[in-house]
Write a structure and sequence with these properties.
Strand order of the largest sheet: 5-4-3-6-7-13-12
Number of helices: 9
Distance between the termini: 36 Å
Helix content: 25-40%
Radius of gyration: 17 Å
Strand content: 25-35%
Order of helices and strands: HEEHEHEHEEHHEHEEEEHEHE
Largest sheet: 7 strands, mixed
Low-confidence stretches: none
Shape: globular
């Protein structure tokens, strides 16, 4: 089946790096204590997902399914969606090893092969919302949610994108890039990532029947460490938000 070029590129990219990625970040991708973002801020501190017991939950770009395992252990009926064959291979190995029930599904978050109103919660920590087009994924998440359901996702902030020095691929304390042109970014590693200005996010949510409940700008604690070296300097991320979590709800009517 043909697919958009960025979908094909990102599938190839994750198939190529999946094993290295899982090995490099194994100590940070917790299957007991779910954590958000590159500095692993615990969900128990942020409380973004609430009680997931008895809920139908979709991880939107599950990678190795570490989050899915952790939430299944908390009583969620988990489905993990991912584009990459290799990431799903790691996810199958993990769920089998841990003896946890997670339905794993291959597909693009831009066109999920599941019925409308299948889930109480759709979420991701980077995942699909970093590597798929938000003009497709946001309406798709809204379609998959039941009335009153939550969509919660963490990703890089526009601040991060406008402060990247393209010559060095480093985040610097200056605004260098065009904020109003944010949408599709062709990365040097061969992947394609996505973002939007804040106002456009809000308009997109409203068009999709989603109401903003919160925007949590993640600030790592002093002395925080990460396996994602090179994402952003800690001192930068302590001054400016490098990641944020949107929490939006599908209208009940």
């Amino acid at each position: 089946m043909s697919m958009p070029d960025h979908v094909a590129k990102n599938r190839e990219y994750w198939n190529r790096i999946a094993s290295e990625y899982q090995k490099e970040h194994e100590t940070q991708l917790g299957i007991v204590e779910p954590t958000w973002g590159v500095w692993a801020i615990p969900e128990r501190e942020l409380g973004l997902l609430g009680d997931v017991a008895g809920k139908d939950v979709l991880e939107f770009g599950c990678g190795g399914a570490q989050w899915s395992v952790a939430l299944a252990r908390r009583g969620a009926r988990m489905t993990g969606l991912d584009l990459s064959d290799e990431q799903l291979r790691h996810a199958r190995e993990l769920t089998t090893r841990e003896g946890v029930s997670v339905t794993l599904l291959q597909g693009s978050a831009e066109a999920v092969p599941l019925p409308d109103a299948s889930f109480d919660l759709v979420f991701c920590d980077h995942g699909a919302m970093t590597f798929a087009d938000p003009y497709k994924t946001v309406p798709e998440a809204a379609r998959l949610l039941r009335p009153g359901g939550l969509f919660v996702f963490n990703m890089a902030t526009p601040w991060l994108y406008v402060a990247i020095d393209k010559a060095t691929d480093r985040v610097v304390p200056q605004l260098l890039n065009d904020y109003f042109s944010l949408h599709r970014v062709e990365e040097d590693d061969g992947s394609t990532s996505f973002n939007l200005p804040y106002g456009e996010w809000i308009r997109l949510f409203r068009r999709s029947g989603l109401v903003v409940e919160d925007l949590v700008e993640l600030r790592p604690p002093e002395g925080a460490t990460t396996t994602y070296e090179g994402y952003a300097p800690l001192e930068w991320a302590r001054k400016y938000p490098a990641e944020h979590v949107w929490k939006v709800r599908r209208e009940a009517r």
